[in-house]
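Hey, sorry to bother you again with one of my protein questions. I've been staring at a protein lately and its backbone has me curious. I owe you a coffee for this, so here goes:
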Amino acid sequence: MVEEDMAVEAKSNVNKRLYKIELLLIKIIPYIIALCYIINTVLSYLSIEAEIFSMLCGISLLPLLFILMSSFVFGFCKYHRMMIYYVGISELLAWVDYYKGIPIPTNTYYILLFTLFGIFIFLFTYYKIKNK
């Protein structure tokens, strides 16, 4: 009986640790992915191949949807979601450009990506200041 109680308590401690780790990862992953997206955009603009960012931080929309839903479930604030929205819109633009082709010059496409990043950084800062 005592051994069972200790096993249940040990399992509970593991679950608490896993919960904390998952919560931390859900908090920081959108920032890491957004940072890698903008670094990859800058390097691509400078014609520097760095596929490591695509391999490590490239994401499809289904995992991004999970992160977004987790953001709502755990009650994260709006500025946390700004990075998720930025990554989602960037990914949609990349898909449209890859499969359909966006009929604009490459430099204009990069300006569009940098402008998109600037808009989301502005919104992030706005919501961050507004919540203080």
About this structure: The radius of gyration is 19 Å. The chain has a mean pLDDT of 82.
